[in-house]
Amino acid sequence: MTPFDLTGKVAVVTGGGQGIGEGIAKSLAAAGASVVVAARHQDRIDRVASEITGTGAEALAVATDVTDRDALIALADAATETFGGLHVWVNNAGGSPVRSPLKEIGDDDWDACLALNLTSVWRASVVAAERMTDGGSIINISSPAGDRGVPGSGHYAAAKAGVNSLTKTMSLELAPTVRVNGISPGYVPTEVMMTALDTDEEALEAMATKRVPLQRLGTPGDMGSTAVYLASEAGGWVTGQTIIVAGGL
After folding, report:
1. Is 156 in the active site?
2. How far is 184 from 119, CA to CA, in rounded Å?
């Protein structure tokens, strides 16, 4: 056993069908966890779960809309019923394709963004914590947008600022049984980020070479390694923190 070993642990990863969520799911599985991969698209999570089981690890794909409380409960119950417990929950599902100044954004787009990026994190964390009877780790995927002004994406930035606040408050309310932390990824060329920035990977890589001190883009695996740390005994004395993983930015 090493401090990073997750053997015997059960982990749920929302938004696990691609990008950062996929990287986190595979990293947790590689560390020994049984992983439940959740997202709206069944074909995507089936692929990720199949690739995990192909390595000899355990995985289950559960189609889930994280904005639906009943779906979150069903997801948590699927994890406990299939693998016998729940120890790690990663709130990764999120994003917003809408870019608009705050004075022009409509109520529906505002409400949808907060429902997906903030309210779902609160609901899922409550559902998860109720089932972490012998301790656990909740990991919220945030964004640098939560710490700055972001013209054109103020609704998304406000939601992520809320996630950072939830992380701090829930870490106090759920201690000492459950630890709550966050990861704030830098430039990782996922489909969600490409849409949000209205750019492509080549342009993003050129920017990273100039602006990022470590002179490369991030990868889903970079976020996965950080999640393993926060989920494992290696991070056992860490709670209430949102770790920036951005190559030095």
Report:
1. yes
2. 18
